[in-house]
Amino acid sequence: MENWDDLRIFLAVARSGSITAGAQKLGLDQSTVSRKLQAFEERLGLNLFMGTAKRNTLSPSGQTIFEGAARLEKEVEEINQNIAGFDEHQGGTVHIVTTDILSNHLLMSVTSEFLQEYPDINLRIRTQEIDDKRLPGDLALYATNNPREELFGRKLATATFASYAARDYVESLQGRTDEMVWLNWDDGSATPSWPKLAPEIPDKMCRLRIDSVAILLEAVRFGIGATILPCFIGEQDPNLVRLTPGQTVSSRDIWLLMHQDLRRVPRIRTFINFFVQRIKQRKGIIESG
Fold first, then answer.
1. Where are the alpha helices (DSSP H) in 17-118?
2. Which domain holds residue 64?
3. Which of 88, 101, 167, 287 has its CA 20 to 30 A from that of 30?
């Protein structure tokens, strides 16, 4: 294979289901990905996809190449991890993947202090879901009650969730809580998923669904309606009010995950120790009852 980028682009499109989604995942222009993928097929003399212009279905030859490329990708990643493990120098970059909500409200709260205290260590933060096959970074900060078994991890806290709305919005209802509009997480299902955490909310009151917790938070701040949020967000926002004081509707563990081979790399160990200590200081608000 002359160019690893050919396989990298092919894998991204195959996993994402379309050229558009693959380009977004790679941070490249759609036309660039389309052109490179077409050139790759021409050099191979094969059609890797079939069916639609979106190239969302692998051909038999495409499936064979996909399986081989995925194995090669994993081997390259393991080599890079082993190389990193031999690096005794503390400086360098720590690559962290997380969600927008954990980045905005937990990670960013300690980033400035870390960068000042450790001038030789840089951080690179990306927001994305953990791939089923690999960890796309040195560390992953995620909220999950079922972390992947093959990853080494530190459970930082158990985040509680409760229902919140903008203070002005609640006051505007003047006690007519049966008229409250509910905003919910959109997981792609036919019916809202978050009302299951609070069974007293009728489905018909769930008027808006959004696939981003960060956008849900902004919608609540705009006074569009109420939703369920992590308490470490709701309790610290002076413009929000908890609808059921002292009651929570759900909880989820917050994990800092990594490949076991990387936990002794000096710069990664330094960040882990720093971040764990800072989260301990905020554990009370994260686990608000």
1. 19-26, 30-44, 60-85, 100-102, 108-117
2. 4-85
3. 101
Other Cβ atoms less than 10 A from the Cβ of 53: the count is: 9
C-alpha to C-alpha distance for 286 and 289, rounded to whole angstroms: 9
Q: pLDDT tens, 17-34?
A: 788 888 877 777 888 888
C-alpha distances in Å from residue 212, one per residue of 128, 207, 240, 261: 12, 16, 18, 32
Instruction: Choose one of 53, 85, 117: the last residue of a domain.
Output: 85
What CATH number is given to the structural domain containing 13?
1.10.10.10
Instruction: Tell me the pLDDT tens digit for each residue of 132-167.
Output: 556 677 898 988 887 776 677 889 999 999 999 999
What is the distance between the alpha carbons of residues 270 and 125, in angstroms, rounded to a whole number? 16
Asked whether residue 123 falls in the same domain as residue 55, the answer is no
Cα angle 55, 65, 84 (rounded to 5 degrees) comes to: 110
Helix (H, G, I), strand (E, B) or coil at 228: strand
Identity of the residue numbered 171: E
Q: Is the CB of residue 153 less than 8 Å from the CB of residue 258?
A: yes
| Pairing, β 92-98 against β 121-127 | parallel
Domain end (from 60, 85, 110) = 85
